Structure formats: structure tokens, C-alpha cells
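Quick one: structure for this chain?
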Amino acid sequence: MDSAKFKAFVVKEIEDKKYIREIVEKNIDDLPEGEVLMEVQYSSLNYKDALSAHGNKGVTRNYPHTPGIDAAGIVAESSSNAFAKGDKILITGYDLGMNTSGGFQQYIRVPSSWVIKLPDNLSLKEAMTYGTAGFTAALSVYKLISSGIKPEDGEILVTGSTGGVGSIAAALLANLGYLVVGVTGKQDKREMLLDLGVYDVISREEADDKSGKPLLKGRWAGVIDTVGGNILATAIKSTEYGGVVTCCGNAASAELPASVYPFILRGISLLGVDSVQCPIDLRLKIWELLSSDWKVDISSNVEEITLEELEQKINLILQGKISGRVIVNLKK
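Got it. Here's what it folds into:
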């Protein structure tokens, strides 16, 4: 395999803060060390991938680099007893696609500790339909439910609900019997959200309180926030007594302009969600849920592209013009 060539999407820094993206031919021996060599069949496009592709040094320190924080495929070689040639596997999280050559190429080599076997009742394509976005959404839902929030407790707010994480979180919650209210700035996507099982849709403006009040009338039994910033702060001060808010993103802002009052007067809990370093036991549990009791059909909200079409989609996701999920077929 060491002499085999394959196709890869590569970002190069041609001068300070100026980057180009192109599809090149790589050799297997160009890949980093690791116990498992995967023939990648599918990857998926995430916001973090787009940041890496545009030279964000907070995501990727060194270039040239191949982004892609998700990958699903077949074991081509393994020096680990845990995996054998031909096994179907997937990887999300850890350092893949950040500072380790990622899934936007036909082969990757990684540490065996990053790899999990594809769960039963899940195809490689379905695994990437979920990807990091779906895993993060399911982890957020899991934390909400584990904190005692039940369907009968009331409405659940999902911010950024047309995005990858938000749309899957909304679908999961609706499928589990919760009353889901989606927030979006894309009112033309209202029908898409209703098709996912969302109970109601509110505008971004309605979810972004500018009054400066430390508390608002309580409405939400729980919140899954994917955007951060003042929308997260508004959600916190609109949550009912004893409610739970999960936080997993910062697309709107990394700042949190909130007071302590929702926490000390209403007993609100704010739970952080991290999918990168999630412990393996919990990681396996979440994937098992996604392949069984929590499995949802979001195929109507998924676009499949080739590596050659990736450049355009990367630009669109940074402009907030992508709804749902984009998966990359590396077999073409």
C-alpha cells in the first residue's frame, strides 16, 4: 500500500494569510503514523472544516493540510488487534482534520484509539449523514434527558435549527416525543423544520432579546443551543424554573452576555457539550443510540457531493447559506 496514490483536497498557504485549495494526488506514505489505515468512502462538511480550509489558525496550525473532521470507510491495513482489514469503521472528533490530515481524501491513517467499528443497523453513508454534527446533537439530547427533562415538562428550544447540529437535534427530540420550537433566520426553511417534526418555528429576532433585562418570562423546559452569543443568553433567561440548557457552538459569538440571576433565582443548569474529547464509553453509547432507538431518517435534508464540488460548499457554509447536512462521497 505504501506506493498507492490517491486523491486529496489540500489547503496551501501561499503567502502570509493567503490560502488556496486544490485537489492533488498524494501517496499513502505521505500520511502520518497510526495503527489504522482507512480507505475513506464518505466524509461530511462541518463549520470547523470550512474554518480550517480558510486558514483559521485556531483550528489548524500548519499548512499544507487536508481538512475533514469526519470519516467513514473500510480498514485497509491495521497493526491493532482491535481492527482487521475489511472492517467497516468511523471516526469523529479527536484531532482528525484539525492538525491531523483529515477525511477529505481517499485514505487516512490514524491512532486506533480514535476508531470505532460501525454500529449494526448503520451504513457508512448514514454514519456520515450524522457525522460530528449528528453526534454532537445526540450528545446534547442525551445530556438534556439525563438531567431529567421529560416530554411532558414543556417546550424545548433548539437554536440554529436549520444547521447540521440543530436540525438533527430537532429531529431527534421530535422523534422522542418532545415539543420542539426551532429558531432560524431562514424563514423559507420553515416547512423543512416542520417536516422534521418541529412543533413551532420562531425568528432569530424573537430569540435575540436586546432589552438588557436579566430575566424574561420563562417559556422553555429545556434548550439545545448551537450558536452561542446573545441568543444563548436570551434562551437562558427565558428558561423555566429548574430548566436545562446545553451549549455546543459559537457560530453567532463566543461571548455570553448573561447574568447570574437565571441560575440563582430559577435554578437553571447550563451544560457544556464537547464532541471532540468525549470519553470512548459515552461515544460508543451515543453511536449505539443513533443506530437503534434514536435512529431518524434525515435523508431529505442531506446533500451528497463529490470532492470536486467541495470548494463551493465550503464558501457557502461560512456565509450561513447551507441548511441540513452535506456529505462527501470519496468513492467518485
